[in-house]
Amino acid sequence: MKVGLIQQHNTSDVKDNIQRLIQKVRECAAQGAELVVMQELHNALYFCQEEDVNQFDLAETIPGPSTDTFSALAKELKVVIVLSLFEKRAVGLYHNTAVVIEKDGTIAGKYRKMHIPDDPAYYEKFYFTPGDLGFNPIKTSVGTLGVLVCWDQWYPEAARLMALAGADLLIYPTAIGWESTDPQDEKDRQLDAWIISQRGHAVANGLPVVSVNRVGYESDPSGVTNGITFWGDSFVAGPQGEFLARLSNTEEQIAVVEVSLKRSEDVRRIWPFLRDRRIDSYTEILRRYRD
Fold first, then answer.
1. Does the N terminus or the C terminus of the chain have fewer Cβ atoms within 10 A?
2. Considering the chain, what percentage of its residues have pLDDT values greater than 90?
3. Annotated active-site residue in 40, 87, 102, 179
4. Which of the following is catalytic: 88, 150, 179, 218?
């Protein structure tokens, strides 16, 4: 399967952001992509740097304008597209939601982000209700997609549950970067940890991982922080954690990457981690902490 990654630097011009995404989807399709993945909350700036009720105006229903736009594009190009949207489920009820569009333009399924951060510059709990759809992969014509979103990528439980439900690969639309006052050695550690964690999910589950991050600097409208420089570095890892592709740290970029789903079976035969799990001894994992 050929997977297209779109790493984009967004501005405050939502219409322009979307038009540039559409053009990049076309470029991916022209290079043979069968599946195209975009970054987290790809239509706008990363608005969660501040708590502002006016930002709820960015939310939309599903189905809605974005799914209509990209459904038509998916149908035209015969590609599967993974979207990441600010979902308005009801008045006062919002989610951070990934939507998978099938190549015939229908909605194959959606996933609502389960783990919601609340840190300086990432005030997502103000905007998003935690997901309630569970960790269920989405079946498509190109494979069964274990779609998770950003903060979920730090949780091995999420990756494992997607794998146990039959995911063929793990997909992480992402918006993560550096606060500018961090020293360089701390920035290096953060980026390394981000990559290592996801490559670890690939190894532990014997599955490819596709992680697509935004890139570029976005100021903090509140002035509390010095803004975020999103670190890009979108990548694809194989089922032994090997890099199949890694994008720029600073620039917009697309890539179309060949991913072998059969290789997962080959790797799982030599590293049968699922076989050797001691599920009879894991009940304590359901506790918050073992006092």
1. C
2. 97
3. 40
4. 150
Catalytic residue among 60, 102, 113, 179: 113
28 is known as an active-site residue: no
Q: What is the pLDDT of residues 115-166, one digit of tens each?
A: 999 988 999 999 999 999 999 999 999 999 999 999 999 999 999 999 999 9
DSSP string, the chain: -EEEEEE----S-HHHHHHHHHHHHHHHHHTT-SEEEE-TTTTS--GGGS--GGGGGG-B-SSSHHHHHHHHHHHHHT-EEEEEEEEEEETTEEEEEEEEE-TTS-EEEEEE-----EETTEEGGGT-PPP-S-S--EEETTEEEEE--GGGGG-HHHHHHHHHTT-SEEEEEE--EEETTS-HHHHHHHHHHHHHHHHHHHHHHT--EEEEE-EEEE--TTSSS--EEEE---EEE-TTS-EEEE--SSS-EEEEEE--SHHHHHHHHHS-TTTT--GGG-GGGGSS---
Q: Is 150 a catalytic residue?
A: yes
pTM summary value: 0.97
